[in-house]
Design a protein that fits this description.
11 strands, about 210 residues, 5-stranded parallel sheet, single chain, Rossmann fold, 2 domains
Length: about 210
């Protein structure tokens, strides 16, 4: 799991990073809205953890609004010292999954992540752990290349809905539809799952 943490308290952000990384969660830390935009432009994340109050012209809620308008629907946990109903309502209106009030025990963030996102996803005899990205078939761990693992993650995230070929090809060194077809075939062969080519839309797990 890869998380983007937007927090301008340097000590808190470092403590959170160390705790989450101890649980095999990859964490990128940014301290300003501009750094957050650059990080989301260059990388894909499974979860955002954003502070609302920032020493900036924009707050965390406004950053999420802008990301949503750009088509980014990454799950979001807000952390904030603000406890008024107006702010909490605004946070959930822009799509917050959780709202953690400061001060909090750092471990609470990990508990919230595990309870909400650490749900094993089952596809026939395949089990996928979204928290650490591990894959099991008949209780035996399956090891995939980074490209295949990322393609599988995208297909699982949009389960029962097609994922565009352009999104899937972003994970390959050389983007081409032929190379994507080869990787899809490898994935089907290794896992024994059905992946359908939906004409003019992309691929999806059946």
């Amino acid at each position: 799991m890869r998380v983007l943490l937007l927090e301008d308290d340097y000590m808190l952000s470092e403590s959170m990073k160390l705790l989450l990384e101890s649980e095999n969660i990859e964490v990128d830390v940014v301290h300003t809205p501009q750094e957050a935009y650059e990080a989301t432009f260059n990388n894909k994340y499974d979860l955002y953890i954003f502070d609302i109050n920032l020493q900036s012209d924009e707050n965390g809620i406004e950053v999420v609004k802008n990301l949503k308008e750009a088509g980014d629907n990454t799950p979001i946990i807000f952390i904030s010292a603000l406890t008024d109903i107006k702010t909490i309502k605004e946070a959930f209106d822009v799509g917050a999954d959780e709202y953690i009030k400061k001060p909090f025990e750092i471990e609470e963030v990990l508990v919230r992540i595990k309870s909400k996102y650490n749900r094993i996803i089952k596809i026939k005899d395949i089990e996928y752990d979204p928290l650490n990205g591990n894959i099991y078939k008949n209780n035996q761990q399956i090891f995939l290349s980074p490209v295949l693992k990322n393609i599988l993650k995208e297909l699982i995230k949009k389960r029962s809905k097609p994922v565009s070929k352009n999104i899937l090809m972003e994970y390959m060194e050389k983007e081409s539809e032929n190379a994507l077809r080869v990787n899809i075939s490898k994935l089907k062969s290794k896992l024994g799952i059905d992946i359908k080519n939906v004409r003019n839309e992309g691929y999806m797990i059946e």
